[in-house]
Amino acid sequence: MIKLQLFDERDYRQLIDEIPDARFLLQWAGPKYTFPLDAAQLSETLLKTIGKKPSFQVFKAIKLDTSETVGHIQLMNIDYSDGVCVLGRVLIFQQFRLNGFGKVMVNAAIEVALEELNLDEVTLKVFDFNTFAISLYKSIGFRDFQFVKSARQFQNEKWNVITMKINKNCWLQKKCEQLNERDAIKRCARY
After folding, report:
1. DSSP code of 67?
2. Phi, psi of 72 (to 5 degrees)
3. In a 10 Å sphere around its CB, with 0-12 CB exposed, 13-18 middle and 19+ buried, how is residue 122 labelled?
4. Which residues does residue 165 pair with via DSSP β-bridges, in sequence order?
5. Is the separation of the CB atoms in 86 and 123 below 8 Å?
6. Cβ contact 151:160 at 8 Å
7. Are strands 2-6 and 57-63 parallel, antiparallel or unpaired?
8. Domains of the chain: which residue ranges?
9. In whole angstroms, how far apart are CA 144 and each of 57, 121, 124?
10. Any residues with CB less than 8 A from the CB of 32 and at least 6 apart, and which?
11. What is the C-alpha to C-alpha distance for residues 123 and 84, in angstroms, rounded to an integer?
């Protein structure tokens, strides 16, 4: 369905065009970026992807059959010694939403973190009003870890933040369950 590729300067314009306003930017990226999102801010992020053990990995998700970019995702604050990172800045581009790309993209990023980078745990932060994203993360195996009331403010709104996490054991168990379910469906289809 999709594969992750490294995000670079050629991808800036498409990502910037997906950010319509300051509220959306804060919801998507947190307070590290300011509106309007621009190449300078994205370049600053890409500087963190350089080196043998970079603190960030930034990806675009490519649709396999058409090679179109369907979204963007980042592994941030990668701490190799503690075995942890933060999953963030998850965005399915408007024209590709509600087609299952989000779950596949998040799973692919978690696979990079827990299997390729050999980390032990991935956390993320999500605003409590983003119920669609929360459901998606829970379906993958993320569990609520912390709730912070009024953690962010946008104009006169106060937003609550939920921190969620998944560890390698939970991820591998969920992955095995999904494989067993697919195998069972294939076996049943034969009869």
Report:
1. -
2. -140, 145
3. buried
4. 123, 143
5. yes
6. yes
7. antiparallel
8. 2-189
9. 24, 13, 10
10. none
11. 8
Residue 159 CA to its chain's centroid (Å): 20
Distance CA(87)–CA(17), nearest Å, equals 22
Q: Which residue, 1, 4, 2, 33, is CA-closest to 113?
A: 4
Q: Which fold has domain 2-189?
A: Aminopeptidase (3.40.630)
Strand order, beta sheet including 143-154 = 2-6, 57-63, 69-79, 84-92, 121-127, 157-167, 143-154
- Cα gap 102→71, rounded to integer Å: 8
> Mind listing the pLDDT tens digit for each residue in 121-169?
999 999 999 999 999 999 999 999 999 999 999 999 999 999 999 999 9
Spell out the residues 6+ positions from residue 46 whose beta carbon is closer than 8 angstroms to its own: 7, 8, 9, 56, 58
Which tens digits make up the pLDDT trace of 75-132? 999 999 999 999 999 999 999 999 999 999 999 999 999 999 999 999 999 999 999 9
Q: How far is CA 29 from CA 15, 81, 87, 91, in A?
A: 12, 25, 11, 9
